[in-house]
Amino acid sequence: MSTFVNSLKKQNEFLQGEVERFASAVDDLAGQLAQARAQLEAKQRVGVASERSEMELADDTTMISSPEETA
After folding, report:
1. What is residue 52's predicted lDDT score, i.e. its pLDDT?
2. For residue 64, what pLDDT is reported?
3. DSSP 8-state class, residue 71
4. Which pLDDT value is given to residue 63?
5. Torsion-angle region of residue 66: left (phi > 0), alpha (psi -120 to 50) or beta?
């Protein structure tokens, strides 16, 4: 019986180690996901600002060269 108990204890220790490794991997992935989201949000903000600048520039040039405005 003690051999069986020892075997179960060893299996339990092994499985606890596996759980720790998987938990660490999940934590690493969560950190990578958070970092990727932050980068995406920053790029989206830059893209939105760039689009606004382009729209403002287009509005300015339309106002300058619009035939309706000069007629």
Report:
1. 75
2. 58
3. -
4. 57
5. beta
Exposed e or buried b per residue across 50-66, where buried means at least 16 C-beta atoms within 10 angstroms of its C-beta: eeeeeeeeeeeeeeeee
Rounded to an integer, what distance in angstroms lies between the CA atom of residue 12 and that of residue 1? 16
Q: Cβ distance 20 to 12 under 8 Å?
A: no
Average pLDDT over residues 19-39: 98
Q: The tokens 């903000």 sit on which residue?
A: 45
| 60 SS3 class | helix
Query: Distance between the two ends of the chain, CA-based, in angstroms?
Result: 103
Phi, psi (degrees; rounded to nearest 5) at 66: -70, 125
Largest distance between two CA atoms of the chain: 103
Answering whether pTM is above 0.85, one says no
